[in-house]
Specification:
alpha/beta, globular, 8 helices, two-stranded antiparallel sheet, Arginase, Chain A, 270 residues, binds manganese (II) ion
Length: 270
């Protein structure tokens, strides 16, 4: 099928892939703009990326074998049923290929909780590196325990370590939780690392289409400098969430696709 392509110019079966892409278009807990079409538009932006990175002098599409597994069919309005589907998908991924690096596209940030709970069956002592304008450390929101602004709290309760970057808006109760439980430095992180990137970590000038934008955010260059300091050889997975793009080639989805490229470029050179 020489002239036919899906997301990547050549797609490998999951058992042979280095990287697997999976969309999770769940946005039932979103309180701002819908993020249901994030996977669609980030994927379209990935399709248009040149693989070569002039800074890293590497081409991810030549160095890595990719598989796009498609989007999980989420159950709108039901976190319980959606979580089961995320759990089954993550199990299928690692039972098929224990060495693959999964990259998930969201979707609201609650999907990260479902992914991490599933990863616990395969990895011990996971540290979460969490880029976000918000801490997401509320125990509940308006009486609901599971929401895009509570997921990080539940990871702490389940024994994950978390290091947060880029936060600039939080509730007082979250500050107490943060001070008590979160890591305060990224140095000395050992063991498996999971990276979660809420696109609202960026200033709305660079990523305006997000669920809940906050002014005074990161510049892309600050993010790209920081990501080089992370021990990428230990990453076991990554997600890009809260992308509220609703058109092709808008700022947030393009930036998300470029993060995908840069992180994988750094990972391949690890
Ligand atoms: Mn956020």
């Amino acid at each position: 099928m020489l002239y036919l392509r899906k997301t990547f110019s050549y797609e490998y079966p999951l058992e042979k892939a280095d990287v697997v892409l999976a969309g999770i278009p769940f946005d039932s807990t979103e309180t701002g703009k819908s993020v249901k079409y994030g996977p669609l538009f980030i994927r379209e932006a990935i399709k248009n990326l040149p693989g070569y990175d002039p800074e890293l002098k590497t081409n991810i599409f030549e160095k890595l074998k990719f598989c796009d597994s498609g989007d999980i069919e989420v159950v709108s309005g039901s976190w319980k049923l959606t979580k089961e589907r995320i759990n089954d998908t993550v199990k299928w991924i690692f039972n098929t290929n224990p060495k693959v690096l999964p990259v998930f596209l969201g979707g609201d940030h609650l999907i990260t909780l479902g992914i991490l709970e599933s990863l616990k069956d395969f990895f011990k002592n996971i540290t979460i590196i969490h880029f976000d304008a918000h801490r997401d450390l509320l125990p509940e929101y308006m009486g609901e325990r599971f929401s895009h602004i509570t997921w990080a709290y539940h990871t702490l309760k389940q024994g994950f370590q978390i290091f947060q970057i880029g936060c600039r808006s939080w509730y007082e109760t979250e500050e107490r939780v943060y001070k008590k439980y979160a890591l305060k430095t990224a140095k000395n992180i050992k063991g498996p690392v999971y990276i979660t990137i809420d696109m609202d970590v960026f200033d709305p000038a660079y990523a305006p289409e997000v669920g809940t934008p906050e002014p005074n955010g990161m510049k892309p260059e600050e993010f790209f400098n920081f990501i080089k300091e992370i021990p990428l050889k230990n990453i076991i997975g990554m997600d890009l969430v809260e992308c509220a793009s609703d058109k092709i080639n808008t700022k947030t989805s393009l930036l998300a696709a470029n993060i995908f490229k840069k992180v994988l470029g750094l990972w391949v050179k690890k």
